[in-house]
Amino acid sequence: MRSYFSILPLLHCMLVASCSDNKDSKKERSNKDFFTETKIAVDFENEMATGETDFLRALTGHTISWQKWDQKILQKAKDTQRPIFALLCSPLGDSSRAVANELNENQALREMVSRLPVCTVIDANVNPEMAILGYHLSNEIGRATAFPMMIWLSHEGSPIAWIPVGQTSGRELESLVSNSVAMVEDTWTKSSRYAVEHSRIDNESRQLRLTPKTEEPEEPLSRDELFRRETRQLSSLYSFGDKDLDFIGGLIPTNSIELLAIGSHSASLAKDVREQSRAAAKELTRELTSGALKDPLDSTYFYARRTGDWTLPSFSKDLFSQAKVATMLLRVGKLLDEDQFTTQGLDLLAVLEDEWLTKQISSISPKGDADLPGAFLWDFRTLKKILNEDELKVATTAFSLEPTGNIPLETDPLGNYFNLNSLRSKISNEEVADKHQLPVEVASKSLEAIRSKLLAHRKEQLGTTTETTLTVKDWALVLRAQILRANHTGSPAHHLAAAATADKILSDYWKAGEGLSRINTGSTLIPARCEDHMTVCRSLTELYQATLDQRWLKTATEIADHSLREFGSETEILAELAPDERIIPLRLHSVGMIFGESTLGIADQVLGRLHALTGKKSYRNLLTSHLKVIAPMERRTVVNHTDYISSCALGEPALVAVLQGDHTSELGKSFIAGLNAPKYLSFLTIRPESGSPLLSPLAGLPTPKGSSSVVLTRAGDSLGQATTLEELTELLDSVISGE
Questions:
Q1: Can you tell me the distance from the alpha carbon of 429 to that of 439, in angstroms, rounded to the nearest whole number?
Q2: 568 C-beta neighbours (distance < 10 Å), count
Q3: Mean pLDDT per 10-residue section of the chain, whose length is 739 residues
């Protein structure tokens, strides 16, 4: 932070100098007067009692008059002729809560941040587009993104000044706030018109930078070629020595792991690339499920984020990330034929259903110091106090414990935790039993007792904060995992559970013609973002693939069509918010994620299948625009969009499996289950031959055989027909894997 403090005075001088230099050129600027009306004096009251999340409502007792972040705040700033001070927060981790409370409890800080501007708090869980903006603003000043983040804005919603705060407190926070406030206040009081005009000009320039560039590829670029090239490059990035993807460490690259696993089955890749992809996906998953990101005490996973010095993960958890890991484990387990991964995915999903959903938990974060020894990181002295001698021996083997710590150097390069242990479970219960010459059952019970004691100790030592606001995206990700479980087990109960979740999404969050709600608390409806629409649409499409129930396809197309109307434009690249929902006058997009998901990638996955099913031109146009956006990005960066590349595995033109005859018969159900196996579904789209006006007409298919049969087609050409499950497996392996 000190390096940034040193430039704040310089920025201040530059702003004042610019203001003075422009005093003589007022006539040349816009004639628009931003404050023609009389200044209104208002004593604002704290509005957080009606906040949408637990995090926001916890600020109700603050002396600072926090205003809600909505369209009204711009009018409040205009009426009072003040700037807006926004504290952009994340409910994950304790930093945002700690800073918000310190700003309120420290009289000097409270007076500094609130004496001039209209004050607001933004929860990134409610307004995820603001997190995207925070990322871009941080890049503009060469800073890493960190929450909370302080942003000052004009009454037009254009940023004037900003600084990531992160885990900052005490004198460091006072210095940061003092310098920032002084700069903003001096600029605003001496020339608010200048600040407003130039922040608007900067925002217009920012829009030009943020709008995705749609370019025709310099040479023809097919999705098949993009999938082949990028998957090969991703597999080459894997370091077998470090068991990592280019030293990404604590991040959870679920999308990249899935892409590698998909690549291991593709006939588009050479045999050695497929083998490398398989090995990389397998080892990365093993590392993920045995490393510090997995909580060995309750089988869930910590959220993928780092501490301020980029060493160890911050120990928070959220439902969305858990559901993504469960989905990845279920998919990769089947793709790689590794039962251990599938079992772990099933276990994790069960925990999410029984604990997180039942208790309405969307995130859990520790209060205070998450790195407290004996809470998440452990030393031998603490372990000796909790475990008896025999248990300590078993724990030492099971968790690779060392008296001097087992955290590797690449995870802790600064040596902050060199004498501590993470509970990395590298070996199986059978190996533990063999090491200590114990029956497997005895070793397993001993490990259960050890985990129980350590978990109890952690709960005693460290308090946690729970967020209970579930978003529609949370439910949609759980639904994806439930669909995979139902496909794996074939259990009617599991199919009903998936259908029940889909029904809940549609009854609680969807209104035909009006769109989705991101958050529905009964009293408050927050409009869903484009990513929410696409995530739900993808899950419903996958449920249709698993059941061929037309109601899921009908709603999926309705949501997709609504999204194209609300979030599209002349370029057809979807933005995160509809124009009338934007408080910040920017058209923000989610297009450039590396290991996470993006709206573009999710949209491509679902629209690719919907186009193959319906033949709608609007879907085709958007898919074409996606390729034009990715083409220039692909030239600059190796594998910068793994969820989009996974979508490219569907091919162009699409590979379609057509069910003929009665798909509700036992044979038809077996065909549907076989086609929905991840090793096949990653490459094809499933549909019945007829039976719905939503589906595009088919021609040139061979005559149906028996009670049920399956035809593989591409671009109207039949690639083969199967009348038994064995024939279908042989046909799929031949077409997809070249085997």
A1: 10
A2: 18
A3: 35 37 41 67 93 96 97 95 96 92 97 96 96 94 92 96 93 96 93 91 94 80 91 86 55 87 96 96 90 85 65 80 96 97 97 96 88 86 95 95 86 81 87 94 95 95 93 98 97 97 97 92 88 98 97 97 89 88 94 81 96 96 92 75 92 95 93 96 95 89 93 95 96 93
C-alpha–C-alpha distance, residues 384 and 338, integer Å: 36
**pLDDT reported for residue 6:** 35
Instruction: Give the C-alpha separation, 259 to 609, whole Å.
Output: 17
The Cα–Cα gap between 212 and 222 comes to: 20
Closest CA to 487 of 647, 295, 330: 330
**CA nearest to 302, candidates 55, 92, 450:** 92
Q: What is the DSSP string of 22-64?
A: TGGGGGGS----TT-SPPPP------GGG-SSHHHHTTTT-SS
Pairing of strands 464-467, 515-520: unpaired
Amino acid letter, 31: N
DSSP bridge pairs for 525:
520
The single-letter code of the amino acid at 165 is: V
Tell the CATH topology of 655-737.
Answer: Glutaredoxin (3.40.30)
Task: Classify domain 2-210 by CATH number.
Answer: 3.40.30.10
Amino acid identity of residue 544, one-letter, is Y
Q: How many CA atoms lie within 13 A of 724 on its CB side?
A: 3
Instruction: Characterize 251-266 residue by residue with b for buried, 16 or more Cβ atoms within 10 angstroms of its Cβ, and e for exposed.
Output: bbbbbbbbbbbbbbbb
pLDDT confidence of residue 8: 43
- Domain extent listing, the chain: 2-210, 241-367+462-468, 380-436, 655-737
Report which secondary-structure segment, H or E, holds 658: strand 655-661
**Is 605 within 8 Å of 597 (Cβ atoms)?**
no
